[in-house]
Each structure stands twice: as C-alpha cells, then as structure tokens.
Design goal:
This protein is α/β, with parallel strands linked by helices and 294 residues long. Helices cover 41% and strands 13% of the residues. Helix 6 packs across helix 9. The protein binds NADP nicotinamide-adenine-dinucleotide phosphate (NAP).
Length: 294
C-alpha cells in the first residue's frame, strides 16, 4: 500500500466541520483519491463556498454536496441523519471532525453544555444514526478528530454534560478525551467498523478564534508562529480515512500516522464503557439504535 493508494474505486464520505480548517483539507485529500463527498458545517455561506471550491477540483462523475447543520443541537443532528439516510443508502466513511473551543459557558437547545454537546454528543449520535448506511459498506470507517488536550485528566461524569462549574479548557479537554474513548469503544462494540481517533497537532485554523479577552490575539499569534498548516493538520485524519487497514489497532489513537498510547485517563476502558452508557441516556437513544458490546 502506498501513501497515495486509496481503498476501493470510489467511496462515499461524510465529513463534519468541512467548511474550513482541518476538515476542509481532509475532504480535499479524499476528493483527490476519487471519492464522493458530503460536507457538513453550521455556517451555510462558508459551507457552500468550500463545496464550490472542492467541486471545482472534482473529476467527472465525482459528487461534492453540502448539508448545513448546527450539530450543537440534537434535533439538528437527527435531521441531518434523516436527510443523509434518505439520500445515501451506503456511507463508507464518516469523519467526525466538527469541534470547537467554547470560551463562554452556553447551553444547547437540549440543556447540555455546548462543548460537550458539539464535540462529544453530536458524533456519538450521528454515528449511531448513520449505522444502517455504514453497515452497507464493505469496509465502514469512522475517524474522529480528537486532540492531545485529552490529557486533561479523568472526565468527571457528574459534571461533563452540565459543564457546571464551567472551565472552558477542562470542558474542551474532557470532550477530546471523550473522542478517544468513543473511537475505542466503537471498535469494541462494532468490530466490523474501522474506528480511529487522531490528534492533528497544533494547527493554524479558526480554532479558538471566538474566544474572549486576550485569548484570541494570543492564540492567533501562536498559530502564526508555531502552528502547522491546516493541510499538515489534516494529514493523519485523511491518511486514516483513506484506508481502513491503516487503522491498526482498531479503536486506536493516532498522531503523525502513528498509533500512540493515550494518557492514563484516555485509555481507561471502564470509563469508556461507562461514558458510552451515559451517552446513550443523555442522547435518549432508542434501544433499536444501541450497539451492544461484542
Ligand atoms: N486547530 C488545532 O490546533 C486543533 C488541535 C487539536 C484538535 N483540533 C480539532 O480539530 C477539529 C477541527 O477544528 P479546526 O482546528 O479545523 O477548527 P476550525 O477551523 O474552527 O473548523 C471547525 C469546523 O467545525 C465546524 N463547526 C463548528 N461549530 C459547528 C457546529 N455547531 N455545527 C456544525 N459544524 C460546526 C466549522 O463550521 P462553520 O464554518 O459552520 O463554523 C468548521 O468547519 C476540532 O474537532 C478540533 O477540536 C484542532
């Protein structure tokens, strides 16, 4: 297998948070492999512009479409899933990439803290809802953008969903550790799915730019000086998404195309299983959608 060699002739890919930053460049790399793309983002203008840019690079017969959804709110996650399942009988690759650092405490329509809702609960629910289409693929693949912020320490399950009392960095770190747990537990419960999480590095994107006070200018300066380009930040995610056999071990956490051991808290299997059970309840998942442990 070479770096350029994709899996299969043409795969159907859904990527959240693809209007800019890391997600856009994962999309661009998978487009170059010949795959069909559905981009998801909250902002319709940015989403459509990204879609047009990618459509301009597409080969004849390749499809690039856009679906707007604010994934902070469960109703929008469900509506997105309904639309995708209506349009697409088979989804080969789901890239759960949309995520934010939320400086000021806010709640979703469902009453959850926003970072938790967008970064953890949305990919959890979207993956469950898209399972009928993923199950039609000969090699279903789910890649989730995590972060080395997962090293924040153990998630406090009593405070994770409410975010009270609020610490923006802790909420973000817990959500990224939840991404690591999610990828591993998904592989345990649905071993036919190639599931991975990855850390993209410190990347010069729009990440953190809606922060308050001094944070935004400081972060922008640091991104300019030390940040990877979004294309470099997308590399590991695109590499994993392009070929399920690269996801070894299944459920693994990858940095720079390499399987790495997450923090002690991030590799706690008891936490991963408990977080999964609680997430089913937080999301109000129907029994029919639940994935039972193998
Ligand atoms: N940049 C870094 O240094 C870094 C490091 C580690 C991990 N990460 C992770 O990388 C992922 C991508 O972030 P990025 O750095 O590329 O940031 P970004 O440039 O801000 O891109 C974020 C993407 O997520 C979308 N998004 C944000 N809120 C959304 C919502 N409520 N519903 C749907 N889509 C939403 C944005 O779409 P809109 O255009 O609609 O806002 C955009 O496409 C995140 O999960 C982040 O945690 C980033």
């Amino acid at each position: 297998m070479t770096d350029q060699e994709p899996y299969g002739p043409k795969r159907n890919v859904v990527i959240t948070g693809a209007s800019g930053g890391i997600g856009f460049y994962i999309a661009r790399a998978l487009l170059a492999h010949g795959h069909d793309l559905t981009l998801v983002a909250r902002d319709s203008d940015r989403g459509r512009q990204a879609t047009e840019r990618l459509a301009g690079l597409a080969q004849d017969g390749q499809r690039v479409t856009f679906e707007p959804a604010d994934l902070t709110h469960l109703q929008e996650v469900h509506r997105l899933a309904d639309r995708l399942l209506e349009q697409q009988a088979k989804i080969d690759v789901l890239v759960n990439n949309a995520g934010r650092y939320v400086h000021d405490f806010a709640r979703s329509d469902d009453g959850f803290e926003t970072t938790f809702a967008l970064n953890h609960l949305a990919p959890f629910v979207l993956t469950h809802r898209l399972m009928p289409a993923l199950n039609q693929s000969d090699a279903p693949t789910v890649v989730t953008t995590a972060s080395m912020a997962e090293r924040v320490g153990p998630i406090d399950l009593e405070r994770f969903a409410s975010g009270v009392p609020y610490s923006a960095w802790r909420a973000y770190g817990w959500s990224k550790q939840a991404n690591v747990h999610f990828a591993r537990e998904l592989a345990r419960r649905a071993p036919h799915i190639a599931s991975a999480s990855f850390h993209p590095g410190f990347v010069a994107t729009g990440f953190g730019h809606s922060g308050g006070g001094l944070l935004t200018p400081l972060l922008k300066g640091a991104q300019r000086l030390f940040g990877r380009t979004p294309e470099q930040g997308a590399d590991t995610g695109a590499w994993l998404a392009a070929h399920p056999q690269r996801i070894n071990p299944n459920g693994g956490y990858f940095v720079d195309r390499d399987a790495q051991t997450p923090s002690k808290a991030g590799r706690d299997d008891t936490m991963a299983a408990e977080l999964w059970r609680r997430s089913e309840a937080w999301a109000g998942l129907d029994d029919a959608l639940k994935l039972n442990p193998a």
